[in-house]
């Protein structure tokens, strides 16, 4: 089970960073995200996904903003089937339906600010030998970055016609530095522990999931492990239900050196190619 960390506790930063180190993720309670705003966004984006308007926002390969239809959805590295999902990549500079813009931008700012705070915690709590190996301070890696992105996902109700073996989101690791993931509208998210067990993550707004992405793993020479996670298909009881979720992916500027081998840009492009979206 999870031990939730109280975001407002005195030792929160230390507890948070040691959880990332031990498991690649952390569960935060007493977090500052706004439930009403998130609920409203889930409903408003669900309406968008139910309309044909979505097709006017198709993503472009070079910028990666906009709508990814189900048949364009990424295929997790090493997975044999595409995920059963459609999604939208929101960047402040990118495409967004007018009716969703104000609230989506408000949430983007709220979640980005929290992500920055948490990255500062990681920076301050990194052991000296790890911190010395960062090419620049973690907080500088995201300065003026326009790569941080909000992904709004819609997992449609299951129809029974899904390709055998396909799953809402196959096991994967996130590409970015840190991911901020409020409870989805339904359960299904599981994270893999370091001893290989799948653990159900609570889908209650009070618990916020934060996980390490591959770029932080790379920048820390694997001191911080990047968590493997997935979204399993619903049981019979909720077959007819859509699922909406909204991870924020905190990204470094493209020029940032992560390791001897990679800049953030090189790393991202390599990963997008593996996912079949670039
Ligand atoms: O839908 C979720 O709960 C998780 C989504 C996810 O892991 C992702 O899009 O990277
Ligand atoms: Fe993910």
From TrEMBL:
SUPFAM superfamilies cross-referenced by the UniProt entry: Clavaminate synthase-like
PROSITE patterns: FE2OG_OXY
Catalytic activity: 2-oxoglutarate + O2 + 2 H(+) = ethene + 3 CO2 + H2O; L-arginine + 2-oxoglutarate + O2 = guanidine + L-glutamate 5-semialdehyde + succinate + CO2
Keyword line: Ethylene biosynthesis, Iron, Metal-binding, Oxidoreductase
Cofactor: Fe(2+)
InterPro entries in UniProt: DIOX_N, IPNS-like_FE2OG_OXY, IPNS-like_sf, Iron_ascorbate_oxido_reductase, Oxoglu/Fe-dep_dioxygenase_dom
Oxidoreductase listed as a keyword: yes
Protein name as annotated: 2-oxoglutarate-dependent ethylene/succinate-forming enzyme
Source organism: Catenovulum sediminis
Upper taxonomic lineage: Bacteria, Pseudomonadati, Pseudomonadota, Gammaproteobacteria, Alteromonadales
């Amino acid at each position: 089970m999870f031990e939730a960390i109280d975001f407002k506790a005195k030792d929160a930063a230390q507890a948070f960073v040691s959880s990332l180190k031990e498991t690649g993720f952390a569960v935060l309670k007493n977090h500052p995200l706004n439930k009403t705003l998130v609920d409203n966004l889930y409903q408003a984006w669900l309406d968008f996904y139910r309309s044909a308007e979505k097709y006017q926002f198709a993503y472009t390969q070079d910028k990666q903003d906009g709508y990814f239809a189900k048949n364009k959805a990424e295929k997790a590295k090493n997975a044999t089937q595409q995920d059963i999902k459609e999604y939208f990549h929101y960047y402040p500079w990118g495409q967004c339906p007018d009716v969703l813009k104000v609230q989506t931008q408000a949430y983007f700012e709220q979640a980005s600010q929290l992500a920055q705070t948490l990255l500062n915690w990681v920076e301050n709590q990194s052991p000296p030998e790890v911190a010395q190996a960062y090419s620049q301070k973690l907080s500088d890696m995201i300065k003026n970055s326009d790569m941080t992105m909000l992904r709004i996902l819609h997992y449609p109700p299951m129809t029974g016609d899904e390709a055998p073996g396909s799953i809402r989101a196959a096991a994967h690791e996130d590409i970015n530095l840190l991911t901020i993931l409020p409870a989805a509208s339904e359960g299904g998210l599981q994270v893999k522990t370091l001893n290989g067990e799948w653990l159900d993550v609570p889908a209650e707004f009070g618990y916020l999931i934060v996980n390490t992405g591959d770029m932080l793993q790379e920048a820390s020479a694997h001191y911080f492990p990047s968590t493997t996670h997935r979204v399993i298909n619903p049981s019979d009881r909720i077959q007819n239900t859509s699922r909406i979720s909204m991870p924020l992916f905190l990204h470094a500027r493209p020029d940032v050196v992560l390791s001897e081998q990679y800049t953030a840009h090189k790393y991202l492009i390599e990963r997008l190619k593996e996912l079949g979206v670039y």
